[in-house]
């Protein structure tokens, strides 16, 4: 198997995706055609056990459960009230409501497994108030697009579940490993908002809210905090596996929805439809990825690439730097979940062979996905915040607004390279 | 002379030293080891994204020629082969070898007729033994404790002794032990060592619940494509490999037990200081009793449905070896 | 924008001008209910299992296995719902730059390819069923579940997915043959983030109206 042929297959897949073919079909088509070209009919018969194997994978059960959990909190209005409560607390910081955006994203991220859902949820709640109070649109859109990406770094995280199931790594460990980087990146974002706001000379702050009101508002932070505590606590203390912690979270969220008096058939129907749509999309891509993976592995693509990369004489640091560039470029054009599942079968063996820690690499991949979410031309979170903006204006506002955050993410990745313990310390102490 | 190219499914990469030091080198130097003009493209099953329970189906599809078959997992599709490795049948290597030898032809015939796969050898990961974080003096002490198990027969046995079986994946067991989700766990001492279980346990008891058997199989199609003298050479090579693995497995087992207990020689793992719980004849009797009380009846019920002669054949071939009536 | 695609936020009792709940909405409601019952039920069982294991030392042994089956069945239903909601992702950046005729062709090919893929999966899955029947496969778990039980339900879900995909592909083909490019493009173009968000915003409005929350 030579590198040129692999490149050709990879770029035809990319081309199929870019002309607008469904992602799952593009991946499966390249996998099936490649496999049959190499091995004929027996390859086709081998797909059957693979499809049942991936659909029956109990690890992936946590995907729909975590999606359902986020939907319940969103559609019952719990997320809306969370934003209002946080703005009372964070609004006094230089940058005002922009901090609330980041804080709300981080808090919602702690209950939702998806970045797009996080940006959409917080964005829909936040943008009308931001506009009314005269916050600059670029900064507002940028903070929401970037804050939303925290959805997959702060656990739970669909992308971590997919990474864990593709590479046989403990999902619990990956989740725990995401906590410190998630909090640090949140702080980096807020630091940037404060610094850039002070530097701009036009410092936005929210009026002071009386302490009594602020304390009263804390009650709205209880549901997300409790749900996060149950999910992460049960994982951290080994009471539950990832899927079990998701189930506990769903039941807790259901309890809060019921307590808020919103639990009715229509809310449930909407949650179910939404959850099914999102998880159906994700799981079809994952199933297609496993078919592609069979071809990739059988034809020795990973070995060929590993050999090729090893021939370049890269160190672990050199490899990761090269991968940052690779993922930065790929993430511009590809949907990040597809990018993740299409590349991990190749990059994971290379990285682990060269001595990169598998859990650290998982967090690295998630960061690269976050980056891809806010880089043009294909950046889902950019589309999301652009789609919700209440005024007229071009997509470039979202792009330029998110640009500083993309730079922060790359610098942050370099920080994790310099201090890998930020990722590996907490899971090692589970 | 034209060279033949075969594809093989191997053990998962993470299964340890047997895969790394015996299986992979054998397949990667296949021509030299067998003296046949055959090259093998060897792929550990986890790199293929195929679950180990699907091995027999994938073999039947004909994409691969050789498989390193995981017996317990694939008894899902062919329960007959579990007769090689019933819980309680083989508490030690000597018995394990006798059982495997007595049952080999039965398993081979069944795999050939059902899946077109010829069995070329059988070998063990080694005894799956008990690790606990609470003091145990005898096996019966696990009564009332939560024990990590990995399959149905083992779960029934733990229930029989009065423990609570908890199915936990291997990757999650370390944490489950550390936090008291389970008090005890069962696996091979070498796997336990490399996964760091001795960090979170205090006692090990070297009594084998199962041998964790595996086999080498080849599709009849590839087998029949060989000339009789080639077949003989191939069989001899697999016999040699299996024999080698049996010995190596026993060395590893002893070495890992030493490492876990902080004794010498310890060359393959990290040293810990677990208490070695001596195995008494009462313990062996208890484990043995699992065969007639639990694992045979449970297995017979499933197996006889798919293969009417299943348990009867076992009674005729293996039971005499174990001294059962 | 297609008029017959129900938004998530709209009530199940959405009524067409003819005064009847349309077929798509009804199918969606039925599938979503089954999906929801599966995963809510699973969440309840798994919660009970986890708590009873922690608190009372009792393990139901099998919640994990049940989760696997729930996913197998639930994911096939989710495939169909994602198909109806046009959620199977397609990249739309370059798509909009093509002429309407090219767009129509791409939309048709894309729907057709999904139908072919769904049929392919259903065909491949039939082999799984055949093998399971032939071997009388039984799960190696405490329950010793005969595999044919979960697998036949799973297979049913895949058949529904294939039927829905073929139905939609048939509709796209008819629109193409009729030359109704505008309709083809409006019903089958890649769903943009904007459309998805419209649903979210509608839902937000509903929430805020019901709450009197500040906007
Ligand atoms: Na999250
Ligand atoms: Na991008």
UniProtKB/TrEMBL annotation, chain A:
InterPro entries listed in its UniProt record: DctM (IPR010656), TRAP_DctM (IPR004681)
Subcellular location(s) per record: Cell inner membrane
Organism: Variovorax ginsengisoli
Top-rank taxon, per record: Bacteria
Pfam families in the record: DctM
Keyword Cell membrane: yes
Transmembrane feature ranges: 52-74, 141-162, 174-198, 218-239, 282-302, 308-329, 360-386, 398-423
Family: Belongs to the TRAP transporter large permease family.
Domain TRAP C4-dicarboxylate transport system permease DctM subunit: 10-422
Entry function: Part of the tripartite ATP-independent periplasmic (TRAP) transport system.
Keywords in alphabetical order: Cell inner membrane, Cell membrane, Membrane, Transmembrane, Transmembrane helix, Transport
Keyword DNA repair: no
Topological category with respect to the lipid bilayer: Multi-pass membrane protein
Protein name: TRAP transporter large permease protein
NCBIfam families in the cross-refs: dctM (TIGR00786)
Subunit-structure text: The complex comprises the extracytoplasmic solute receptor protein and the two transmembrane proteins.
Automatic annotation (TrEMBL), chain C:
Main location: membrane
Keywords: Cell inner membrane, Cell membrane, Membrane, Transmembrane, Transmembrane helix, Transport
Membrane-topology annotation of the record: Multi-pass membrane protein
Start and end residues of each Tripartite ATP-independent periplasmic transporters DctQ component domain: 42-174
InterPro entries attached to this UniProt entry: DctQ (IPR055348), TRAP_DctQ (IPR007387)
Keyword Endoplasmic reticulum part of the UniProt annotation: no
Subcellular location: Cell inner membrane
Entry annotated with the keyword ATP-binding: no
Sequence intervals crossing the membrane: 30-48, 68-85, 105-126, 152-170
Domain of life according to the entry: Bacteria
Role this protein plays: Part of the tripartite ATP-independent periplasmic (TRAP) transport system.
Subunit structure: The complex comprises the extracytoplasmic solute receptor protein and the two transmembrane proteins.
UniProt family annotation: Belongs to the TRAP transporter small permease family.
Protein known as: TRAP transporter small permease protein
Lineage of producing organism: Bacteria, Pseudomonadati, Pseudomonadota, Betaproteobacteria, Burkholderiales
């Amino acid at each position: 198997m030579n590198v040129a042929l692999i490149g050709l297959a990879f770029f035809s897949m990319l081309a199929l995706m870019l002309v607008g073919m469904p992602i799952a079909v593009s991946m499966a088509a390249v996998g099936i055609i490649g496999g049959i070209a190499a091995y004929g009919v027996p390859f086709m018969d081998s797909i059957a056990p693979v499809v049942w194997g991936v659909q029956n994978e109990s690890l992936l059960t946590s995907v729909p459960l975590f999606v359902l959990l986020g939907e319940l909190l969103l559609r019952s209005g719990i997320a809306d009230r969370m934003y209002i409560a946080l703005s009372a607390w964070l609004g006094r910081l230089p940058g005002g409501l922009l901090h609330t955006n980041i804080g709300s994203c981080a808090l919602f991220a702690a209950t939702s497994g998806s970045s797009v859902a996080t940006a959409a949820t917080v964005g829909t709640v936040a943008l009308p108030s931001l506009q009314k109070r005269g916050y600059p649109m670029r900064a507002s859109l940028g903070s929401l697009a970037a804050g939303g990406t925290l959805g997959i770094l702060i656990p739970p995280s669909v992308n971590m579940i997919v990474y864990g199931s593709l590479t046989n790594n403990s999902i619990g460990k990956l989740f725990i490993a995401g906590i410190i980087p998630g909090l640090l990146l949140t702080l980096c974002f807020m630091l940037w908002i404060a610094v850039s706001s002070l530097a701009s000379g036009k410092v936005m702050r929210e009026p002071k809210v009386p302490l009594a009101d602020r304390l009263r508002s804390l009650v709205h932070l209880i549901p997300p905090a409790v749900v996060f505590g149950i999910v992460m606590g049960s994982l951290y203390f080994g009471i539950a596996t990832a899927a079990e912690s998701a189930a506990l979270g769903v039941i807790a969220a259901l309890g809060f929805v019921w307590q808020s008096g919103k639990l009715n058939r229509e809310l449930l129907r909407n949650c179910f439809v939404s959850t099914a749509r999102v998880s159906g999309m994700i799981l079809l891509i994952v199933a297609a990825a496993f078919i592609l993976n069979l071809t990739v592995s059988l034809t020795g693509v990973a070995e060929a690439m590993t050999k090729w990369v090893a021939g370049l004489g890269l160190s672990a640091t050199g490899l990761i730097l090269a991968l940052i560039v690779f993922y930065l470029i790929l993430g511009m054009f590809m949907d990040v979940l597809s990018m993740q599942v299409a590349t991990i079968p190749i990059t994971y063996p290379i990285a682990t062979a060269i001595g990169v820690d598998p859990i650290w690499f998982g967090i690295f991949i998630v960061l690269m996905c976050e980056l891809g979410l806010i880089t043009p031309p294909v950046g889902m979170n950019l589309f999301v915040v652009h789609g919700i903006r209440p005024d007229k204006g071009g997509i470039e506002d979202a792009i330029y607004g998110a640009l500083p955050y993309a730079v922060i993410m790359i610098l942050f990745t370099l920080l994790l390279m310099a201090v890998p313990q930020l990722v590996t310390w907490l899971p090692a102490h589970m | 002379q034209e060279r033949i190219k075969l594809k093989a499914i191997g053990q998962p990469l993470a299964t340890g030293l047997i895969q790394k030091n015996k299986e992979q080198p054998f397949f990667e130097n296949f021509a030299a080891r067998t003296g046949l003009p055959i090259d093998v493209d060897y792929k550990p099953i986890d790199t293929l994204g195929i679950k180990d329970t699907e091995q027999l189906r994938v073999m039947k599809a004909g994409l691969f020629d050789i498989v390193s078959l995981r017996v317990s997992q694939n008894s899902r599709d062919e329960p007959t082969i579990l007769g090689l490795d019933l819980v309680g049948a083989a508490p030690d290597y000597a018995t394990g070898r006798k059982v495997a030898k007595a049952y080999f032809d039965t398993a081979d015939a069944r795999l050939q007729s059902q899946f077109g796969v010829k069995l070329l050898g059988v070998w063990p990961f080694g005894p799956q033994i008990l690790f606990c974080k609470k003091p145990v003096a005898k096996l019966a002490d696990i009564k009332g404790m939560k024990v990590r198990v990995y399959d149905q027969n083992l779960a029934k046995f733990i229930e029989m002794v009065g423990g609570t079986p908890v199915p936990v994946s291997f990757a999650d067991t370390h944490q489950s032990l550390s936090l008291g989700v389970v008090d005890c766990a069962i696996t091979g001492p070498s796997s336990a060592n490399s996964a760091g279980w001795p960090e979170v346990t205090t006692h090990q008891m070297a009594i084998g619940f199962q041998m964790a058997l595996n086999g080498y199989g080849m599709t009849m199609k590839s087998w029949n494509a060989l000339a009789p003298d080639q077949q003989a050479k191939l069989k001899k090579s697999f016999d040699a490999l299996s024999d080698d693995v049996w010995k190596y497995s026993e060395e590893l087992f002893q070495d890992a037990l030493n490492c876990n207990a902080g004794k010498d020689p310890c060359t393959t793992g990290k040293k810990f200081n677990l208490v070695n719980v001596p195995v008494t004849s009462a313990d062996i009797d208890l484990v043995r009793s699992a065969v007639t009380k639990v694992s045979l009846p449970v297995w017979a019920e499933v197996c006889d449905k798919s293969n009417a002669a299943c348990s009867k054949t076992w009674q005729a071939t293996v039971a005499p070896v174990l001294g059962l009536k | 924008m297609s008029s017959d695609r129900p938004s998530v936020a709209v009530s199940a009792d959405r009524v067409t001008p003819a005064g009847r709940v349309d077929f798509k909405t009804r199918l969606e409601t039925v599938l979503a209910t089954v999906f929801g019952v599966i995963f809510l039920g699973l969440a309840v069982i798994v919660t009970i299992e986890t708590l009873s294991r922690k608190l009372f030392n009792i393990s139901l042994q099998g919640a994990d296995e049940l989760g696997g089956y729930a996913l197998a069945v639930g994911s096939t239903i989710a495939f169909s719902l994602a198909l109806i909601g046009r959620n199977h992702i397609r990249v739309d950046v370059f798509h909009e730059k093509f002429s309407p005729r090219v767009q129509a062709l791409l939309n048709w090919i894309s729907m057709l390819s999904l139908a072919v893929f769904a049929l392919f999966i259903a065909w491949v899955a039939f082999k799984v069923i055949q093998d399971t029947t032939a071997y009388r496969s039984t799960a190696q778990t405490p329950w010793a579940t005969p595999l044919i039980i979960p697998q036949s339900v799973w297979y049913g879900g895949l058949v529904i997915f294939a039927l829905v995909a073929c139905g939609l592909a048939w509709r796209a083909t008819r629109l193409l043959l009729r030359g109704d490019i505008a309709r083809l493009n409006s019903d089958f173009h890649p769903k943009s983030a904007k459309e998805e968000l419209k649903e979210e915003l509608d839902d937000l409005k509903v929430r805020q109206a019901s709450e009197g929350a500040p906007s």
